[in-house]
Amino acid sequence: MTEPPSSALRRQDHPLLPSPAEIEDARTSAGGFTRAQLAVWGVAWPPPKGWKKELNARWRAAQTKQP
Q1: Distant-in-sequence, close-in-space partners of 18: CB < 8 Å, separation ≥ 6
Q2: Any alpha helices (H) in the chain, and if so which ranges?
Q3: If you placed Cys at 38, which of 5, 14, 43, 52 could pair as Cys (CB 3.0 to 4.6 Å)?
Q4: DSSP state of 3
Q5: pLDDT tens digits, one per residue of 25-43
Q6: Does 46 sit behind a cis peptide bond, omega within 30 degrees of 0 on the bond before it?
């Protein structure tokens, strides 16, 4: 199955899935995010609109999955 092109994030084999708190903690002193940090999370540069919302939704969905 392929991903719809509207996805704000690139799919990787095992991207790091940060919690909403980890995302906020990774902000730079200027309030943004570095290209390197976004790459770790699988976010393209420049970051597309909605990338944080999508990461947060994925993290929440992963919390409800059974191992």
Answers
A1: 26, 41, 55, 59
A2: 20-25, 35-40, 51-64
A3: 43
A4: P
A5: 999 999 999 999 999 999 9
A6: yes
> Are the beta carbons of 8 and 48 closer than 8 angstroms?
yes
As given in the structure block, the two tokens for residue 6 are 């509207």
Question: Whole-angstrom Cα distance, residue 46 to residue 61?
Answer: 25
Quote the CA–CA distance of 50 and 18 in Å, as a whole number. Answer: 15
> How many other C-beta atoms are found inside a 10 Å radius of the C-beta of residue 49?
9
For residue 44, give every residue at least 6 positions away whose Cβ sits within 8 Å of its Cβ, in sequence order, or none. Answer: 9, 10, 38
Please, are residues 59 and 18 in contact by the beta-carbon 8 Å criterion?
A: yes
Per-residue confidence (pLDDT) for residue 43, from 0 to 100: 94
Q: Which pair of tokens denotes residue 24? A: 């906020």
